[in-house]
Amino acid sequence: MPGMNPAKRRYLIRFLSTTGVYVIISLALVHYLVQVRPTGPVVYFLALLPAIPIIGSIVVIGLYIAEEKDEFQRRLLELSLLWGMGGTLATTSTWGFLETFAQVHLTSPPVSPLFWVFTLFIVCTAIARIGLDVYYRSRK
Amino acid sequence: MKNRLRELRGERGWSQAELADRLEVSRQSVNAIETGKYDPSLPLAFRLARLFAMRIEEIFTDEA
């Protein structure tokens, strides 16, 4: 990753690592739950496993903000995160109203797919970052 | 805030990337400051002033 400062390089490596672990754990968990159908306390333990890399990703974002010495790069991430939070809150609130008042459900029986909230947050943040990059790259 | 960064950089024959290296920031940061889209913090403004051997108010002006 030439031309990238050390803090951003560490951030990307850490973030891709936690994301990779999350994908692997999620896929393995779905496969295991469908194939083995475990019962008892082990189910609670297994259900909590994917949360670990997600919490790790949040820590990684915080570490980057603490380690990045380029104040403008920090500002870009902070703005992206704010837009990401706004997008996530707007989407999930709207979805909640649709579920509650209009009985719009993705699954039957109705289960709110809350585990997608973090992914939605990352997608909103990434879209915001692309928009900010385009804005700040222009010369006017 | 308006600034004379592009002009001062041009006088010294530096590219945005060269100025960014001297300030230890990204080229994107230099561009954002030059275009007036980002106002640097006081510590970064002081680094710029030291680099150009000028006072901060000779580089940045408090105009809309």
What key phrases describe this protein's structure?
heterodimer; A: 140 residues; mainly alpha; 78% helix; 0% strand; B: 64 residues; two-stranded antiparallel ribbon; 5 helices; 2 strands; globular
Provide a descriptive summary of the structure in words:
The complex is a heterodimer of chains A (140) and B (64). Chain A has 2 domains: 1-69; 70-140. Chain A contains 5 helices and no strands. Chain A has helices at 6-36, 41-48, 51-67, 71-102, 117-137. The longest helix of chain A has 32 residues, at 71-102. Chain B is mainly alpha-helical and 64 residues long. In chain B, strands 1-2 form a two-stranded antiparallel ribbon. In chain B, 61% of the residues lie in helices and 6% in strands. Chain B starts with a strand and ends with a strand. Chain B has helices at 5-12, 16-23, 27-34, 42-52, 56-59, and strands at 2-3, 60-61. In chain B, helix 2 packs across helix 3 (27-34). Classes of the chains: A mainly alpha (140), B mainly alpha (64). The A-B interface holds A 5, 69-73, 75, 133, 135-140 and B 24-26, 28-29, 31-33, 35, 37-38, 40-41, 44.
Computed structural class of chain A: mainly alpha
Secondary structure tally: strands of chain B:
2
What is the 3D form of chain A?
A: flat
Radius of gyration of chain A: 18 Å
Describe the SSE topology.
The complex is a heterodimer of chains A (140) and B (64).
Chain A: H1 6-36, H2 41-48, H3 51-67, H4 71-102, H5 117-137
Helix pairs in contact in A: 1-3, 4-5
Chain B: E1 2-3, H1 5-12, H2 16-23, H3 27-34, H4 42-52, H5 56-59, E2 60-61
Antiparallel strand pairs in B: 1-2
Helix pairs in contact in B: 2-3
